[in-house]
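Researcher: Next sequence.
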Amino acid sequence: MINWYLKVVRDNYANFSGRARRAEFWNFIICNIVITLLLSLLIFILDDTGITMYIAYALVTFLPLVAATVRRLHDTNKSGLYILVGFIPVVGGIWLLILLAADGNYGPNNYGPDPKIEDYYTNGISTKQY
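Model: Next structure:
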């Protein structure tokens, strides 16, 4: 799980092109939530220092979060502008969540090659058999 988190934060910090697998995106989200919760605990322990650390972390991870979301939308063959759907009251967030949870297109699409196939051939790992 940490490897997926580092792949987003370290290797693809502001990369808005290409595609992101569901595993990459959701493992990043889970790690981000855990780190945010731990920093929230520090707010109660360290007061101002905890708040400063929380804000700094939120600012540092904002760009990778947006980039990973755009690449996840690319995996479903949607434009990165679909991220703006989340601003529609009530239904927008639900619709965006459904788009982010949907399985990506098999094979290459408008935004690049299938990352599952790339992982299968380069690293010998895959969640599907081809």
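Model: The chain is about 65% helix and 0% strand. The mean pLDDT is 88.
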